[in-house]
Amino acid sequence: MKKLYYFDYNATTPLHSEVLDAMMPYLKDRYGNPSSSHIFGRETRAAVEKAREMVAKILGADPSEIVFTSCGSESNNLALKGLFSAHCKAKNHIITSSIEHPAILSTCSFLEESGYKVTYLPVDGNGRISLSKLKESITEKTLLISIMHGNNEIGVLQPIAEIGEIAREKEVFFHTDAVQTTGKIHIDVNQIKVDLLSLSAHKFYGPKGIGALYIRKGTEMHSIIHGGHQEKNRRAGTENVAGIAGLGMACEIAMRDMDKEFKHLITLKEKLCNGLMKKIPKIRINCSFENCMPNTLNVGFLAIEGESLLINLDLKGIAVSTGSACSSGSVEPSHVLKAIGVPVEYIQGSIRFSIGRFTTSEDTDYLFEVLPPIVERLRSMSPLWDDKQ
Ligand SMILES: *Cc1c(COP(=O)(O)O)cnc(C)c1O
């Protein structure tokens, strides 16, 4: 089989072998329902509670504050709908940003259709919100601020500790979508003063189909999935035991390896960025190194269609992404790149490279060998490309 080169870790990550090992017993012999009182149920209950401790630990939370969900999208839905539902219409205003993941933006549109008010904060050229604009937007009707931690497309990190400070001072709830940062960057829910935090296992070497929502003790929430009494009535449905065990192990591995991984990623990202700038003219780096995830590099190539570039790289066994993973296939330029003001000549030809623990220096060397001639060829065929540029 031809070797493949994966530069799309923000879409999803491979399962870590230790995670698979932790899951296997619950896919085979240990099939009990954790709600059952017999031995079969007790052993899977123990696995669920052990994993809950690990998730709590990586966030600096208490295990009772962790609710397992089916994915990051569900965690985001639960955070917003569950909170608003519990607080009726006394407060009907939410503040978010214009560069959130679709799981937040679509939930906000849904809430707007139901009569809630949403403020979408703009961002600067690096993708950061303005704290003074945030303060100005808070009214006596504001129930929640939902601002993501790390952006999936450009990697920008928001000043969440400062946002948490403002939310606490104004007595507004604060939710953060930390799906991209959990397991990659240190998070302490008490230090950032967050009330709700979403995470998802498959973005940090865990399995797909399992996520969690941190809910600060005392936060009144309604369930959005009704049924049995699982998760202390906060999320009905028989637990995905193997997935939960996998998420727990993914957290353990992340806590053990985070610092080492961070160095590995930032070194490779720098190499990737410098290499591309050296080898290919007329490119634009759509992200920064400051306040940015160590694994995400978004690059605009002048006068090229991102989709053509993606397909040509795919033919060479290299996987990248244009726009967000969830909207690829659509030709609408990414809402994130628009929000940070990427010029039109670069926006269509923007590619996200996202690396991870299994990316090697040789992978980037292969990219440096393959990419420049593709770019040159596509540009030579492009009506937007002028040789004199
Ligand atoms: C991937 C992602 C999600 C959605 O998580 P799923 O588990 O795939 O539903 C939400 N927010 C961000 C920032 C993401 O990157």
TrEMBL record:
It comes from Candidatus Schekmanbacteria bacterium GWA2_38_11. It comes from the Bacteria. Homodimer. Forms a heterotetramer with IscU, interacts with other sulfur acceptors. The active site is at residue 326. It catalyses: (sulfur carrier)-H + L-cysteine = (sulfur carrier)-SH + L-alanine. Pyridoxal 5'-phosphate binds at residues 72-73, 152, 180, 200-202, 238. The lineage of its organism: Bacteria, Candidatus Schekmaniibacteriota. This is Cysteine desulfurase IscS. [2Fe-2S] cluster binds at residue 326.
